[in-house]
Amino acid sequence: MLVFLFSAPILAGEIIELNNSSCWIKQEFSDYWRVVSLNTKEVEDFSWSETSTHFYQSLQERLEKLGKNDFDTSQIQMGLFCTTSGFEFVFSVPNFQEESFCGTAKLKNGQLELKDIFSNHQNSYPCDRVIPGELYIYAKDLEFIEAQLEELYQNNESPFIDYYEKTSRALKIKLNPNYVFKEHIVKKILEKDLGHYIKFIEFNHQVTHNGEFLPLFE
């Protein structure tokens, strides 16, 4: 079971404004909250105890699909992230056995719906937003790098690679499910194996708007 410990830096009835007043959040009373985005005119009322069970279940199911059943999710940190285009909830799970993940959720009719799960290699709070199981290799000669990977793959020297494909500017690496949330480890291995043949290897980050984050539950 996932457990969230309430530690919101908000007093009942107090309004907290975020991102130059783009959003605000207010604890109406006890366990009931109101979140507003002035730019998008979103207004959501919710009870944390009522919506948390649904969120916990959705998160567990998504993690199981990724083959991750051993995470200690009892210390999830969650907060509100506000941008000029609206608000979302962002959560993070601390480093666990060289793996760490984070994600986003959206309020809809008072229910907190899980949106995305990301790898979180920088342990940056609230979320590094790295697409799980993907890396991009940039090199002058992609065909040569492709041949090197093929040789490693055929000899089972790179068990972490599920498959790869060439894009216009890079090789997109899809990792074996066992290496989801471990992209930083594979990145170091490939940098060592391929050495000076490559320009650089990077994570696949989701682009997001700049905004302001308020810790709420942990």
SSE order and pairing:
Layout: E1 15-18, E2 23-29, E3 32-37, E4 42-47, H1 48-65, E5 77-83, E6 86-96, E7 99-108, E8 111-119, E9 130-138, H2 142-154, E10 161-166, E11 171-175, H3 183-194, E12 200-205, E13 211-217
Antiparallel strand pairs: 1-2, 2-3, 3-4, 5-6, 5-13, 6-7, 7-8, 9-11, 9-12, 10-11
Question: What would the principal axes of the Cα set say about the shape?
Answer: elongated
Separation of termini? Answer: 15 Å
Structural class: alpha+beta
SSE topology string: EEEEHEEEEEHEEHEE
State the total count of DSSP E strands.
13
- Unreliable segments of 5+ consecutive residues: 1-8
Q: Which whole number gives the mean pLDDT?
A: 84
> What is the strand arrangement across the widest sheet?
8-7-6-5-13
Overall domain count: 2
Question: Over the alpha carbons, how many angstroms does the gyration radius reach?
Answer: 20 Å
Helix content: 10-25%
Which percent band covers the strand fraction? 35-45%
What's the story with the biggest beta sheet? Answer: 5 strands, antiparallel
| Discrete helix count | 3
